[in-house]
Amino acid sequence: MASLAFLLPGGFIFLSFFFISADAATKFYQFNIQVNNVSRLCHAKPIVTVNGRFPGPTVYAREGDSVQINVTNHAQYNMSIHWHGLKQFRNGWADGPAYITQCPIQSGSSYMYSFNVTGQRGTLWWHAHILWLRATVYGAIVIMPKPGTPYPFPRPAREETLVFGEWWHADVEEVVKQGNSLGLPPNMSDAHTINGKPGPLFPCSEKHTFAMEVEQGKTYLLRIINTALNDELFFAIAGHNLTVVEIDAVYTKPFMTSAILIAPGQTTNVLVHANQMPGRYFMAVRPFIDAPIPIDNKTATSIFQYRGIPNSVLPTLPHLPSPNDTSFALSYNQKLKSLNTPTFPAIVPLKVDRNLFFTVGLGMNPCPSCVNGTRLTASLNNITFVMPEIGLLEAHYFNTKGVFRTDFPDKPPTPFNYTGAPLTANLGTTKGTRLVKLTFNSTVELVIQDTNLLTVESHPFHLHGYNFFVVGTGIGNFDHNKDPAKYNLIDPPERNTVGVPTGGWTAIRFTANNPGVWFFHCHLELHTGWGLKTAFVVENGKQADQTVLPPPKDLPQC
Ligand code: C2O
């Protein structure tokens, strides 16, 4: 069945009928990591792909299915693939971040990612989780609800997946190497893309424009994914409102909006009613950046095309929020609420066993060979995370000493006015592979606080192995005495990646009921690379079914 998805990329409806009466099944995929020449923006270049496709193949599953994806690496880079947002209960071995849950798959080797899709349905995605290779190695994951369980919204006439990405003219790995050796951010991407295509506002895009045909009067479900490496994005369709119904594979209370905001790592499902004069309307994507850093103003477009309208009709552009529209961003995020019905409850931890407070710090270290004599760096609670040389999960499972420490501090060493006047001082940042140890089933509240160290900036944080509830957010310094009183503990949005606002904070809660080692990092590749990351070690529970599963036999070795 899985192979049908390859043959019929547009045959989603067919597939969903095909699956309708099927019980839980095993879906098998073969992913060949290879290098292919791809041309965009008047240039051709070799890129790393899965099965020669860009974006890569969509993985279809149904809630309750088992999925087996055999990844064979034919490229010159070591590889690992992360199934972003899948909870991987007890099964970090299939999570994928290189050196966290596995050693990378060496050139010429294979590894079978084998996992169950339990208690989740909706849109997620997969991507390379090593170096910056996810620039071209990514694709969608579509999890259909269990047979006989309808969506909690009207059934759409058709579904379409819209995957937003970034494109560089040059070899991305070279771009990163250059940035690192200069001590500067690597060059910005040359284009944004929708389903791998930048659209007609970029040169040589005739063949590289994605179009979606619609019929007047019908309603469509768009599964939207932001795979960009470094850009939060606004998205809108000219003349059409969007109704948000799901984020990060969790249903939300539906609300209508003229545009959505989506951070790298996040997904958003929207319904769109084709209720306008038949025509051609641009679907457009442009970055949101409200920090004092260079603004990237490039707009990727694709076309929402009513049936029977010739391609000669010029599409109109939507009105996107301006790139620095903080108030749109804050009010949009405020509207996100869990559906919280008996079938899809929001089980928010009400009492907290462990309070964590992490400060985000950007900084500069001395670097005599760099252009400014400094190299940019990043830290959480003044610790710049150092990648280990073997997988942390393996070290944890086999109790190998000396690979990591579990003394990551619960709060910054010295409190300060986090979002006050720009702070350039280095607060005594140290390096280390230091993790946070959590007791099985403990409830955790984590406040992530942006700081004005070097510059304030918005940071999309992603937690592997879990969803969490976003119980509160605000601008300025988090106030332990006042802010918790304003938390939403009834229907907060549940997700796996959350944007910490520029110069502000976000509070999340989760129950540490998934044993293993789970990466926690900023999903801006730029910042992850500089060390804005740590990991949680969640201990085993007492019962046999609360412990980390044994490692698969083909687990790659370093
Ligand atoms: Cu989508 Cu650790 O990543």
UniProtKB/TrEMBL annotation:
Q: How is the cofactor bound?
A: Binds 4 Cu cations per monomer.
List the InterPro entries: Cu-oxidase-like_N (IPR011707), Cu-oxidase_2nd (IPR001117), Cu-oxidase_C (IPR011706), Cu-oxidase_fam (IPR045087), Cu_oxidase_CS (IPR033138), Cu_oxidase_Cu_BS (IPR002355), Cupredoxin (IPR008972), CuRO_1_LCC (IPR034288)
What general EC class does the enzyme of this chain belong to?
oxidoreductase
Q: Which residues form the signal peptide?
A: 1-24
Q: What is its main location?
A: secreted
Keyword Repeat listed? The answer is yes
Q: Which residues form the Plastocyanin-like domain?
A: 33-146, 161-308, 407-541
Keyword Transferase belongs to the record? no
Name the cofactor(s) required for activity, per the record.
Answer: Cu cation
Which EC numbers does the record give? 1.10.3.2
Per the UniProt record, one Pfam family is Cu-oxidase
Q: Which GO terms describe its molecular function?
A: copper ion binding; hydroquinone:oxygen oxidoreductase activity
Q: Which GO terms describe its cellular component?
A: apoplast
Task performed by this protein: Lignin degradation and detoxification of lignin-derived products.
PANTHER family annotated for this entry? Answer: LACCASE-2, MULTI-COPPER OXIDASE
What family does the entry list? Belongs to the multicopper oxidase family.
What is the designated name of this protein? Laccase
Native organism is: Daucus carota (Wild carrot)
Q: What is the lineage of its organism?
A: Eukaryota, Viridiplantae, Streptophyta, Embryophyta, Tracheophyta
